[in-house]
Amino acid sequence: MNQATVTTFPLTDDVRQALEVTLRGVDELLPQDDWTKKLARSAATGQPLRIKLGLDPTAPDIHLGHTVVLNKMRQLQDLGHQVIFLIGDFTTLIGDPSGRNSTRPPLTPEQIKANAETYYTQAAKVLDPARTEIRYNSEWCDPLGTRGMIELAAKYTVARMMERNDFHQRFTQGNSISLHEFLYPLLQGYDSVALKADLELGGTDQKFNLLMGRHLQQEWGQEPQCVLTMPLLVGLDGVDKMSKSKHNYIGITEDANSMFAKVLSISDTLMWDWYTLLSFKSLAEIAALKREVEGGRNPKDAKVLLAKEITTRFHSAAAADAAEADFHNRSRGGIPDEIPEVQLSGAPLGIGALLKQANLAPSTSEANRLIDGGGVRVDGSVVSDRGLKLDAGSYVLQVGKRKFARVQLD
Asked: Which residue numbers belong to the known binding site?
């Protein structure tokens, strides 16, 4: 960073407060001194800082894990800075190798376009659309061409690239690494050059790529960006990071009842990490609530507050209230007011086949496993016999606490 341009600005109380907001829940802020100086310069000159978050549209839906960095973007946006929501429509053609032990299969342009169309609409549930710059990295990556790509590749060495953990592990384990995968961190770094970013955000698994942006900006004679990494949100299972492939996620477009119930399903311990990373409550408010729980208040009360906050954010306060009422009704064994209605034929029909055809179980064998576990009810009564056959009639089928269907069997 050009020290002459940043050391003359005072560290006011507002700057210190902005730094505190920046640091909330973060894993690393690199280099913190440089970011403090950028904040001081911005406060003194009134020039907003440019804050970048890139997401590759590898799937059409955003889950709560993605919103950890979106929440941080919103906090910095509320401080008056310019946030840039970058859709990696070009880099998705390569596939981000971060954290992978094998080559990630690239998507087709058609798949990328379809996914990208939904991304910003969902992100706008967290960010302020009026103060968000939306960009696509095909804007500057497509024009690079072969010559530009070669010149970009010359800015980094293979030895440095192999220092990256996932590349090093795959190489030592004898797993393949395709040459095009080396282009991914280079292109992500080049995004920062094109956008003249002051700060780039990402998960902890993105650190190498984010630092590449600093390196390339220096190569292009720019003031290097700072790097902020956020922890990866642990999913519903309490073990792995939230991921669609792990089936431990909450999509931000899920219905309010499912969203509310899934938040309540997390452990009392994990709840506090979710509060830090997902709640908009102040750290002081969260600390006070935690003291109340440690003093004897039921932790479920705190979890309900978190579930209502998250559900309200992505739906409405009324929907959150209704979801809470629905959850309590189900916990007492009640049936929700609105459940899917299914018309089936073939009576008498075995319970396993019935659950599969009613879309309450993916297969008959899975239906049998659910029955063995006591998780299946017909008209409120637990089913224990895999061989049960139902005659023609109307039935309310329930699997677990949240899956229902009203079946008319002929």
From this structure: 244
